[in-house]
Amino acid sequence: MERVYLDYAAATPLDSRVLAAMMPYLTTRYGNPSSLHYWGQQARAAVQRSREKIATSLAVPSTRMVFTGGGTEADNLAILGYLRANFPHGGHLVTTAVEHHAVLRTFAFLATQGYEVTQVPVQADGRVAADAVAAALRQDTVLVSVMAVNNETGACQPVEAIAALTRERHIAFHVDAVQSYGYRAWHPADTGIDLLTICSHKIYGPKGVGALYIGPGIQVAPDTYGGPQEHRLRAGTENVAAIVGFGKAAELLEQERPARICRVTALRTLLYESLLSSPDLRDIRYNGSRHHTAPHIINISLAGADSAVLLIALDRLGIAVSAGSACEAGAVRPSHVLQAMGVPDKWLRGSLRISLGKETTADDIRRFVAALQKVATGIYKGERL
């Protein structure tokens, strides 16, 4: 069976050019970057070149970048590390109700440790209003964390407006840019973002490596202790091959981002119009913003359906999509994002996230829509899928 992959928001395939850049560091260039000999300095130089490539993509000095084991670790280092260094005994924290669980569960933990957490609600399109964030800020607010693009719906948050609020009040601002990095050029220093999270496997790099931008004047304390690696913020030998791959993926992204955006935007329009025009897809709902959205994510719901049933049925037809965050795969609970948006029960449990990438074709879109029509027809007829 020829399969169609439409789950790029979960993971992108490794670009062949990225793999080629990594291979020497998986084979012949095996030195430890902390070693003083030739092999060690070869590895150390490779890590630094990648750091510079990623920093260039964010228009920041390379000294502001710290490599981590992925986006979740970078989120944790940003939030917990900042509080450990500056407000270890409590304070008021602000986030939104639709964050990735890497942020939400970190804040839930902090709520048990003497911190007071405010989750700002979102509007029906999944976006938080900057005015609502402003209303949530207090004299004792010490940190705000808002994601740039929602990983389930693609909704873009008003990061610039929130950054203006936090900068004016001298409150640290963290942004999870994992889903947006591949489709928007971020310049956190100019925007007023103090801490910014990105990762590799959303931009055709390897899994298991991420990065955190730490702005000037921002102090972060480590949660692991050992060697002096990564500015003494992440002890342990660096994953050199993965870091090299991340750097190459960032370099390619800078060269190709406009073309990728153009391609994916056209395919997204085709997908949206194909879904709306299908006579077999009655009672379908679009979840999210039509105008303030990332180009690669669409979230829909089929009335009365069950996401798990839909995913399995589509997979049997060779179509790979998701119901939301890959980190929550297998969860039987409805999406916390859709619940926060106030999606009615009729559509709440039958959601699908379709996410596109640079390898997606128009034929992939047509095959997905045809498969969804077949599955939906069976559901409407009460057939066992």
TrEMBL record:
Annotated GO MF terms: cysteine desulfurase activity; iron-sulfur cluster binding; metal ion binding; transaminase activity
Catalytic activity: (sulfur carrier)-H + L-cysteine = (sulfur carrier)-SH + L-alanine
Keyword Iron: yes
InterPro entries with a match to the protein in the record: Aminotrans_V_dom, Aminotrans_V_PyrdxlP_BS, Cysteine_dSase, PyrdxlP-dep_Trfase, PyrdxlP-dep_Trfase_major, PyrdxlP-dep_Trfase_small
Cofactor (UniProt): pyridoxal 5'-phosphate
Keyword terms, alphabetized: Aminotransferase, Iron, Iron-sulfur, Metal-binding, Pyridoxal phosphate, Transferase
EC annotation from Swiss-Prot or TrEMBL: 2.8.1.7
Pfam families listed in its UniProt record: Aminotran_5
Keyword Metal-binding assigned: yes
Domain Aminotransferase class V: 4-368
Source domain of life: Bacteria
Family indicated by similarity: Belongs to the class-V pyridoxal-phosphate-dependent aminotransferase family. NifS/IscS subfamily.
Name this protein carries in UniProt: cysteine desulfurase
